[in-house]
Design brief:
Layout: H1 37-72, H2 75-101, H3 115-142, H4 151-176, H5 180-209, H6 214-241, H7 251-259, E1 264-276, E2 279-288, H8 294-309, E3 313-320
Helix pairs in contact: 1-2, 1-4, 2-3, 2-5, 3-5, 3-6, 4-5, 5-6
């Protein structure tokens, strides 16, 4: 976010200098009222409750799967149990981050703790990468001399894991569309579901053929798959922490859209970034005609930004077109 230039001459109407709208808050501003603060809060509560349920299911079955893996000698089950251990840690972190992000803003943290959800998603991604590398290395070491595996008990445990993962995915599917943190948890469970399905296939192959190398081969493939699935989430988390513009917002197009509003002359110092999932911020300077009505322009900009670009937290500084101004940072469309 840019700091307003102290040399910039302010407009005569203080009320028209900037507009703030916070969709995540349940109070009114001069730029308009907001009615969906409660629904956002209700969605958070439901998501948190479901995360707790998935955490309990995953933690319980992780213990069963780990014991089953050691007793049957199956690397696939041990790998899946290790992945579930990552899930348990990730889900616990996600629940903690969701609780932390609900804490209100204060004088030192003006955006509150919303970024904690992104940090949790980043930590979960890194954890999955580490687990994938470990499983792949262990699988490769077993290629030359695959151990005998008790395939039938392995099959029974894997079927139980598949059922638990499908239930967990169903619980998290809605939340994953609205929260990067919940999306990270969903991907963890989804990866586990694929793992369980693969273990089932491998156990059936070994039961019918005695081809025990299927176990390390499957483990290596699962590790590669999990790594591939995690990469997008890792990149998205880093992009948000680096305050990149969201993928759906093209700055050139946004500048042109703002400039097309009646009464707007130019746009400069425009910044767009994501605070957390579903909370996009924008700040910028907008030069307007001498005869333009500031309040009317602010209302039009608010409508444009919210409905076309899903930007729900904006700070706009209006300037008269003939006033001296200085470009502090990113000047687009000058």
């Amino acid at each position: 976010m840019t700091t307003p230039d102290p040399n910039t001459e302010k407009m005569e109407s203080p009320a028209a200098t900037s507009v703030e709208n916070h969709d995540a808050h349940d109070h009114d501003h001069k730029s308009g009222s907001h009615s969906h603060g409660h629904s956002h809060g209700d969605a958070k509560k439901l998501s948190k409750k479901r995360l707790f349920t998935v955490l309990a299911l995953t933690g319980s079955f992780m213990i069963i799967e780990a014991i089953g893996g050691f007793l049957t000698g199956s690397l696939s089950l041990v790998a899946d149990a290790g992945h579930m251990l990552g899930d348990v840690a990730a889900l616990a972190l996600a629940v903690f981050a969701m609780w932390l992000s609900s804490k209100p803003a204060n004088a030192s943290r003006t955006f509150g703790y919303h970024r904690s959800e992104i940090l949790a998603a980043l930590a979960n991604s890194v954890m999955l990468v580490v687990i994938s590398i470990f499983v792949f290395s262990e699988a490769v070491s077993r290629f030359s001399n695959p151990p005998t595996v008790q395939s039938m008990p392995m099959l029974i445990v894997a079927i139980g894991g598949l059922v638990v993962n499908l239930i967990s995915m169903r619980l998290l599917s809605d939340s994953a569309e609205k929260s990067l943190n919940a999306k990270a948890a969903y991907l963890e469970v989804f990866s586990d579901m694929i793992s369980s399905a693969g273990v089932i296939v491998a156990s059936i192959v070994m039961i019918n053929t005695g081809w025990y190398i299927a176990d390390p081969i499957l483990s290596a493939l699962l590790a590669i798959f999990i790594l591939w699935r995690t990469w997008g989430l890792l990149k998205e988390s880093i992009d948000i922490l680096m305050e990149n513009a969201p993928d759906h917002v093209n700055l050139q197009e946004l500048t042109a859209a703002i400039s097309a509003v009646s009464g707007v002359v130019a746009v400069h110092d425009l910044h767009v970034w994501t605070i957390t999932s579903g909370m996009i911020s924008m700040s910028g300077h907008v030069a307007i005609q001498e005869t333009a009505d500031p309040e009317t322009i602010l209302d039009q900009l608010k409508e444009l930004l919210e409905h076309k670009y899903e930007i729900n937290h904006t700070t706009i500084q209006l300037e008269r077109e003939n006033k001296a101004r200085k470009c502090n940072d990113v000047c687009i469309g000058q």
